[in-house]
């Protein structure tokens, strides 16, 4: 994939941290004068708006109606390693200065529209402050995920000490750019039971795989099949925005897929894969042969044992229709959430302004204890309690009781009875790989598909990615891990596509995920599984903190709330192969990790 990260031999770097001292940063040194691992990835340094004079429009050529030119600042207004958001009159751009050279591109991340000026500028790329996507400052190409689109870039020149940007007006307005994509060169009958590449699953892994193939010039047939009834959509938003329709969540339209010869078969469930004949059989009897197969079926809800499974209005949140029904049924009614997974907790938060009551049942004493630690979990739990959410922890469901088939009560094993008009089960998930059990494709004891660093399975021509796989993770000495993040699935799709066409790419990314509740966002980067300590800087009570997760004596992950863009900045350090030691985050000054100002 793109060169967002280099992977030099790991080196230990001293980090001195203290919340109290005033922020300082001079020539890449930390406040105490010692070498900072963040020296190569500076934050925005010049955030002020440009003056009206600086933004004055210059005369355009009479035949350049599609373009705008503007003088946006003085050549000395930006230092090396700084960014500025500038106004060109009919749109804004991000101006960047690195190694004495200026460049300019769109100012918003095409994923969710984050202001990139508040992100992290490193060697040759900008990292989004919200979700960690990376974009080349030279080309605007997306180099690390999430997101599907790249950024348009604009011409920059210097005349009489003025920095002038020339930009396409349409690009300024759209703030995104699609990489060129090839089309299928063969004349294909849609009923033909053969596809050069067959993709099972239309989530981010499958979609990025298909798009990458087309971007890399692949001109044979691509078929993507899914059990969903909709084109690819933004699944993480389901639990955060329950009333959104599939259309509103859509990532790519049917027209887009058709324009790029990516055939989509919806409501298709795979029953079996025969690796000897290189064929896939579907529930409706369709059989399709393939040359290359990519399996990205994601996960399915973990089943729960309780009485009353025939009672209606009990949901596993899987589709936009599920989300819409949950929101409708909970309106001024009693909602019960079973499980303190991120999805379950996000649904609970989303329902507080709709439901009469919201109750959460969990088997752990504190939500998110395994992922974020007990202290962070307690702080988030307090946020929920402040918003009228009632917790029943160290508890499990015994029975769902209905009246005329409709849910009325949830009975806990403790004997407690909760009034309930709608129930959402968010007790975790398992890989959706049941159809592979007799295929010869290797599954581990938990049902995950084992792949190598090229996302290849043990079977020639069969690849897999996303939530269904365990893959070798370089920061853990290539131990095989499962990281079910939306961002990671994008990476898997790209790596698999490049492997299919004989252009294998090294696995280069830092895991990154986020969760939003009550208008507040938790950001997380790294791989904290098995952490043995959490070092917290900031104020948990105010939910303005950064938590460093350590394993032995090394920082392996970081989480934050209201501390942007610290998680993206730490991701840069981890991605560069440098090491942050536990002793360096226990005391000291982290003010120079935090945003210097707001635009």
Automatic annotation (TrEMBL):
<keyword id="KW-0001">2Fe-2S</keyword>
<dbReference type="Pfam" id="PF00355">
    <property type="entry name" value="Rieske"/>
</dbReference>
<dbReference type="InterPro" id="IPR036188">
    <property type="entry name" value="FAD/NAD-bd_sf"/>
</dbReference>
<dbReference type="InterPro" id="IPR023753">
    <property type="entry name" value="FAD/NAD-binding_dom"/>
</dbReference>
<dbReference type="InterPro" id="IPR016156">
    <property type="entry name" value="FAD/NAD-linked_Rdtase_dimer_sf"/>
</dbReference>
<keyword id="KW-0285">Flavoprotein</keyword>
<dbReference type="GO" id="GO:0046872">
    <property type="term" value="F:metal ion binding"/>
</dbReference>
<keyword id="KW-0274">FAD</keyword>
<dbReference type="GO" id="GO:0072114">
    <property type="term" value="P:pronephros morphogenesis"/>
</dbReference>
<feature type="domain" description="Rieske">
    <location>
        <begin position="70"/>
        <end position="165"/>
    </location>
</feature>
<keyword id="KW-0560">Oxidoreductase</keyword>
<dbReference type="GO" id="GO:0016651">
    <property type="term" value="F:oxidoreductase activity, acting on NAD(P)H"/>
</dbReference>
<dbReference type="InterPro" id="IPR050446">
    <property type="entry name" value="FAD-oxidoreductase/Apoptosis"/>
</dbReference>
<dbReference type="InterPro" id="IPR028202">
    <property type="entry name" value="Reductase_C"/>
</dbReference>
<dbReference type="Pfam" id="PF14759">
    <property type="entry name" value="Reductase_C"/>
</dbReference>
<dbReference type="GO" id="GO:0051537">
    <property type="term" value="F:2 iron, 2 sulfur cluster binding"/>
</dbReference>
<comment type="similarity">
    <text>Belongs to the FAD-dependent oxidoreductase family.</text>
</comment>
<dbReference type="Pfam" id="PF07992">
    <property type="entry name" value="Pyr_redox_2"/>
</dbReference>
<dbReference type="InterPro" id="IPR036922">
    <property type="entry name" value="Rieske_2Fe-2S_sf"/>
</dbReference>
<dbReference type="InterPro" id="IPR017941">
    <property type="entry name" value="Rieske_2Fe-2S"/>
</dbReference>
<keyword id="KW-0408">Iron</keyword>
<keyword id="KW-0479">Metal-binding</keyword>
<keyword id="KW-0411">Iron-sulfur</keyword>
<dbReference type="GO" id="GO:0097194">
    <property type="term" value="P:execution phase of apoptosis"/>
</dbReference>
<protein>
    <submittedName>
        <fullName>AIF family member 3</fullName>
    </submittedName>
</protein>
<dbReference type="GO" id="GO:0005739">
    <property type="term" value="C:mitochondrion"/>
</dbReference>
């Amino acid at each position: 994939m793109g060169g967002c990260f280099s992977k030099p031999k790991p080196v230990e770097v001293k980090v001195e941290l203290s919340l109290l001292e005033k922020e300082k940063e001079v020539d890449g040194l930390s406040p105490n004068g010692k070498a900072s691992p963040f020296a190569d990835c500076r934050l925005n340094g010049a955030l002020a708006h440009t003056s009206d004079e600086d933004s004055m429009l210059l005369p355009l050529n009479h035949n350049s109606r599609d373009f705008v030119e503007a003088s946006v600042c003085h050549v000395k207004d930006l230092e090396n390693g700084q960014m500025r958001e500038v106004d060109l009159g009919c749109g804004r751009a991000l101006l960047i200065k690195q190694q004495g050279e200026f460049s300019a591109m769109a100012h918003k991340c095409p994923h969710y529209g984050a202001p990139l000026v508040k992100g992290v500028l490193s060697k040759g790329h900008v990292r989004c402050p919200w979700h960690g996507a990376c974009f080349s400052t030279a080309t605007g190409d997306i180099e690390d995920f999430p997101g599907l689109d790249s950024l348009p870039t604009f011409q920059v020149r210097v005349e009489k000490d003025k920095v002038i940007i020339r930009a396409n007006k349409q690009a300024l307005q759209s703030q995104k750019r699609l990489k060129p994509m090839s089309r299928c060169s063969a004349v294909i009958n849609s009923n033909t039971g053969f596809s050069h590449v067959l993709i099972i699953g239309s989530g981010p892994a499958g979609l990025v795989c298909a798009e990458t193939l087309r971007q890399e010039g692949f001109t044979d047939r691509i078929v993507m099949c899914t059990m969903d009834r909709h084109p690819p959509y933004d699944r993480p938003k389901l639990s955060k925005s329950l009333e959104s329709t599939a259309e509103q969540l859509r990532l790519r339209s049917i027209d887009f897929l058709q324009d790029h010869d990516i055939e989509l078969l919806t409501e298709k469930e795979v029953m079996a894969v025969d690796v000897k004949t290189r064929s896939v059989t579907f529930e409706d009897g369709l059989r399709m042969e393939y040359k290359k197969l990519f399996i990205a079926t994601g996960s399915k809800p973990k089943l729960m044992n309780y009485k009353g499974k025939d009672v209606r209005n009990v949901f596993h949140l899987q589709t936009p229709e599920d989300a819409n029904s949950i929101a409708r049924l909970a309106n001024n009614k009693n909602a019960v959430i079973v499980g303190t997974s991120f999805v379950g907790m996000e649904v609970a938060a989303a329902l507080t302004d709709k439901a009469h009551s919201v109750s959460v049942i969990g088997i752990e004493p504190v939500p998110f204890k395994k992922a974020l630690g007990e202290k962070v979990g307690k702080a988030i739990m307090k946020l929920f309690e402040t918003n009228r959410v009632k917790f029943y922890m160290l508890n499990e469901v015994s029975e769902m009781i209905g009246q005329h088939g409709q849910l009325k009560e949830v009975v806990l094993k403790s004997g407690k009875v909760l009034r309930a008009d709608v129930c959402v089960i968010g007790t975790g998930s398992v890989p959706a790989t049941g159809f592979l059990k007799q295929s010869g494709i290797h599954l581990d004891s938990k049902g995950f598909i084992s792949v190598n660093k090229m996302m290849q399975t043990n079977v020639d021509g069969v690849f897999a990615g996303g939530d269904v796989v365990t893959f070798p993770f370089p920061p853990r000495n290539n131990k095989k891990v499962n990281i079910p993040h939306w961002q990671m699935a994008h990476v898997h799709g790209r790596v698999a596509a490049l492997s299919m066409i004989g252009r294998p790419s090294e696995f280069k990314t830092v895991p990154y995920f986020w969760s939003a509740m009550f208008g507040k966002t938790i950001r997380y980067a790294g791989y904290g599984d098995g952490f043995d300590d959490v070092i917290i800087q900031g104020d948990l009570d105010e939910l303005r903190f950064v938590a460093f997760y350590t394993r032995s004596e090394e920082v392996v992950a970081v989480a934050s709330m209201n501390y942007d863009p610290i998680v993206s900045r730490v991701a840069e350090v981890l991605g560069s192969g440098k090491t942050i030691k536990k002793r360096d985050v226990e005391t000291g000054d982290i003010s120079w990790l935090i945003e210097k100002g707001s635009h």
